[in-house]
Amino acid sequence: MAFSASNCLALLSFAFFVSSSIILSCASRGIEARGSPISSLVSRELFHSIFLHKDDNACPAKDFYTYDSFVEATRHFPNFGNAGSLSTRKREIAAFLAQISHETTGGWATAPDGPYAWGLCFKEEVSPQSDYCDSSNKEWPCYPGKSYKGRGPIQLSWNYNYGPAGKALGFDGLRNPEIVANSSSIAFKTALWFWMTVQKPKPSCHNVMVGRYVPTEADIAANRTAGYGLVTNIINGGLECGRPNNAQVNDRIGYFQRYAQLFNVNTGPNLDCENQKSY
Ligand SMILES: *[C@@H]1O[C@H](CO)[C@@H](O)[C@H](O)[C@H]1NC(C)=O
Ligand SMILES: *[C@@H]1O[C@H](CO)[C@@H](O)[C@H](O)[C@H]1NC(C)=O
């Protein structure tokens, strides 16, 4: 068979009546055509050596975050881990996995295998201080009685994130925020959505990690230089950046250093954000 992926859509419409095996081979070609799938850089074995304890009884998210749902979610974001050199691709994936690990960490200083072997231990925030409803936001109004607390690998929070994430991914984030902690593939998709999406004035985490970040004058004045520290600034800079030796920032860095080693790639410069102003 010698049809290209671009013929797939046209073919599919009649192939439906002919043979499901054509559809299957077409679908898998479509995925390959968008670049090698993430599984060539993150094998099942590597995933499990990164997240050594995610399925322990001690972890509330036990058995929730599966390798297959991670890979499935990445198919919706074909540019993730797929821009630039092999090192750049591995570094971006290591940075993403490190940030979601900090957000869901069950680790502590003397934990078995060290504090950075405990990513993906939680799927929802345990003692939220509020419902994370910004009622001044009229574009994404809170639904009565719903909590927009941290859920999923990136701990998606606030109505103004649940609304647009759901719109982009095909669920009702305002009426049904709980689904982020009920469906593993939706959970991973929300984390990738946050990672890939530019939310002005912030750049996307993806663009920072693949060298596509172009600082504005204001960014330069605020020391917002490309590197893993800037990704931390995008995710939670208001609470963590611009202050020396912040414990959360150090935890994020610790995860990244361990994962970069497992991916056999260097971390790049500017791991910290202690000299950066937040957005
Ligand atoms: C999510 O799961 C909980 C129980 O684990 C259930 O009570 C709730 O209805 C579920 N919500 C959705 C949106 O599936
Ligand atoms: C930028 O970093 C320098 C140290 O490298 C620091 O002295 C300065 O205060 C920082 N500027 C801002 C706006 O944080």
Automatic annotation (TrEMBL):
Matching Pfam families: Glyco_hydro_19 (PF00182)
Cite the InterPro entries for this sequence. Answer: Glyco_hydro_19, Glyco_hydro_19_cat, Lysozyme-like_dom_sf
Q: Where is the signal peptide?
A: 1-20
Look up keyword Signal and say if it applies.
yes
List the cysteine pairs that form cystine: 59-121, 133-142, 241-273
Q: List the active-site residues.
A: 103
The record's section on Gene3D superfamilies has: 1.10.530.10, Endochitinase, domain 2 (3.30.20.10)
Which keywords belong to this entry? Answer: Chitin-binding, Disulfide bond, Plant defense, Signal
GO MF term set: chitin binding; chitinase activity
Any single biological process term in GO? carbohydrate metabolic process
Please state every residue range assigned to the domain named Glycoside hydrolase family 19 catalytic: 59-81, 186-196
Protein's UniProt name: Chitinase 10
The species is Morella rubra (Chinese bayberry)
